[in-house]
Amino acid sequence: MVESILKTIFTPVVDYYRDLRWSNLRSRKYSHLLLALYWPVYGLVFLSLERLLPLLFDIQYHEISCALDAYIPFNELFVIPYYYWFVFLAGFGVFWLLYEPDVFRQWMWAIILTYSSTVVIYLVYPNMQALRPAEFPRDNILTDIVRGLYNFDTNTNVCPSIHVLGSMAVCFAGLHSRLLRGWGWKVFFVVSTVLISLSTVFLKQHSIIDVYAALAVGAVCYALQYWVAPRICARRAERQQI
After folding, report:
1. In the predicted model, is pLDDT for residue 242 greater than 70?
2. Which is nearest to 65 in space by CA: 162, 204, 197?
3. Kind and range of the H or E run holding 62
4. Residue 62, Cβ neighbours under 10 Å: how many?
5. Contact 226, 175 (CB under 8 A)
6. What are 13-61's pLDDT values in tens digits?
7. What's the confidence (pLDDT) of residue 141?
8. Backbone dihedral region of 157: left (phi > 0), alpha (psi from -120 to 50 degrees) or beta?
9. Among 24, 86, 135, 200, which residue has the least CB neighbours within 10 Å?
10. In which domain, by residue range, is 75 found?
11. Angle between the 208-223 and 101-124 helix axes, to the nearest 10 degrees?
12. Is residue 163 a part of any domain in this protein?
């Protein structure tokens, strides 16, 4: 029974990657693996923005806030979907890497386009938020986790929200997945994205403006990826056939 399940899970992966070599890593079949190299590059760049540049330069951060933020109460329960974001992002990324390379490409390009855009925005318009509560309204294990989050994460480089953009990238890819099709999966991706986005404001990690900005950047990315780019490729294919 167990052996049968393991074969069902791993056989498609083994069959697909059986011929992978250094010599064909840049081929159409395997070139999606190279896109994963963006993650360490982005990590170093973001770490430099957060930790290194403030030590070298006197950066004038612009505070992001609006009247609506005052009406959004702090709620430590949202630390659950906030940290679930890491599982949501990495888990489905690995799944598509193994089982749906074309979906993995779309997911990675959404990450590359949106995350690179935010880096440019952070450089051109350094921003921060001052919404974190001075004292928590309750004292429990969840507020302890939030306290650790505050100590680890800075309150700078917040607009647009990386949490929201990463969730949108997973949602876009999930809605176009062939293996994870059906209304159940579609609802799951949308609800997960909404909960993660809400968690950023209920934990006072972001202003609602950061969410709106991320939605705008993500919408442009979606249009470029799933509407504009396919039409351009289709026109090129038609011209080549003439």
Report:
1. no
2. 204
3. strand 62-63
4. 9
5. no
6. 988 999 999 999 999 999 999 999 999 999 999 999 999 999 889 999 9
7. 97
8. left
9. 135
10. 31-241
11. 130
12. yes
